Structure formats: C-alpha cells, structure tokens
Request: fold
Amino acid sequence: MLKTLVQSVRPHEVTFADGTVEQFDGIIMATSPHALGPLLGFPEAERLSSLKRTSSMTVLAAFDESDVDALDGTGYVIAKPEGNALTACSWMHKKWPHLAPKGKALLRMYIGSEHVPSLLHEEDDQIANFALSELRRIQKVGTPLFTKVERHIQTMPQYEVGHKQDVRAFEEALLKWDGVEACGAILHGVGLPDCVDSAKRAVDHLHLRQAVTV
Ligand SMILES: Cc1cc2nc3c(=O)[nH]c(=O)nc-3n(C[C@H](O)[C@H](O)[C@H](O)COP(=O)(O)OP(=O)(O)OC[C@H]3O[C@@H](n4cnc5c(N)ncnc54)[C@H](O)[C@@H]3O)c2cc1C
Reply:
C-alpha cells in the first residue's frame, strides 16, 4: 500500500493508520529515523530512534542558461565561515544533463540546518527568495523560471559516540522478531550507497531466516 502511514509493526504483521491490519511473510523497515522506535515499540529501537537529527531544506531553481554565470564544474559547497545560509549549490543540469532541456539550467540550493527553524513556517515563495538572495551573494543568476522548495525535517541522523553499540543492541533485539528486518540511514551510514547496502543486507537476512524456518 503506497502513500499509507504505518502505525505499528509486529512479527509478520503491519497495522496501518486507518486501522487495517495485514499479514506478511517478511517486513523490511525503511522508515525515517524518528519513526522506527514508535513503530516497533521495543526499548532498543526507541533508543536508536532518539538519536540526534538535523533538518535541512532544498530549493530547486530553473533558469535560462544565459541567465546564470557559466561554471566549469557541477556545483560547489560553501564553508561555514563564509556566513552564507547556503551550504551548497548543485548544478543539476551539469551533473545529470537529462534533467534539463538544452539551454536551461537547474540549480539546487541547500539551506543549512541552523536556518531551518526560522524558515520552517514561511511560505515556499519566501523560502525560495531567501535562498536566491543568499545565492546572489556568490554568483550572478537572473529571474528563475520556477522554484521548488523541499523540507527535510529531522531526517539526517547525527551519529554520536556509542552509535555502533546502539545499532548492535537493536539488531540483536530485532533477531527475536521473526520476519522483520530494518535498513536505512539510522543504521550503518547516511550516504545513499550505505542505505542501499543496508537494504541489500536486510533482504539477504530475511531470505536466510526464511530458509532456516522452512
Ligand atoms: C538535502 C539532502 C541531501 C542529500 N544529499 C546526498 C547526496 O548527495 N549523496 C548521498 O549519498 N546522500 C545524500 N543525502 C543523504 C541520503 O539522501 C539519506 O541519508 C537517505 O536518503 C536516507 O534514506 P532512508 O531510506 O534511510 O530514509 P528516507 O529516504 O528518509 O525514507 C524514509 C521513508 O519512511 C517514510 N515513513 C516515515 N514514517 C513512516 C510511517 N509511519 N509509515 C510509512 N512510511 C513512513 C517517509 O515518508 C520516507 O519516505 C542527502 C540528504 C538530504 C536530506
């Protein structure tokens, strides 16, 4: 069931927010860090879920390419001492040319976590204008053809000392839950390759455990 909130997970069983309960041979949890603990409801999961997280926002802006400073590269990161609210700007049309038609430029700006609380309740237009004004302190851009704001609230885990032990305790506790595995940024790394690896491991574990119980 796509686009349906899950309320709780138990061995082989998922309860959805609308009250529907369904049985499954195997369940792989790939939820946001904050959701893992409440969904599973055991202490090791709750502990992992309570790890520190930060928020960010991205603003995508499309331009005529002639309205953007030419750049030999695919974007840049902005060091904190520069005092800019943006932490990076990706030149999406250079990284992945299929994302924009010829003659157009697509820029993604990343707003740093410390600026998110004051912007959180602003309208998208205001957030986009703020990001563009910060961008214009670094490079020349014209008027965007369109902008799109995305909010990533409390999604980025900040691992602290002891994280590995917390993950190990969680994984050991989960072993007692037949047919349930977990993956994602909350476990062994936040980068996409880490998340993909953890998803592959979860699938392998599930198959292995099913083979052992057959
Ligand atoms: C702005 C930004 C830029 C990034 N750039 C890069 C990059 O360039 N390279 C890189 O390697 N990594 C990057 N990352 C990190 C990487 O994208 C994330 O760590 C990764 O996407 C996390 O994947 P995930 O599957 O663990 O969680 P998510 O992708 O957050 O997926 C969790 C899903 O669970 C769903 N969910 C939550 N609660 C429930 C519920 N109760 N019921 C049902 N569904 C639920 C959410 O809706 C969400 O779809 C970036 C992250 C951010 C925020």
In short: The CA atoms of residues 11 and 185 lie 22 Å apart.
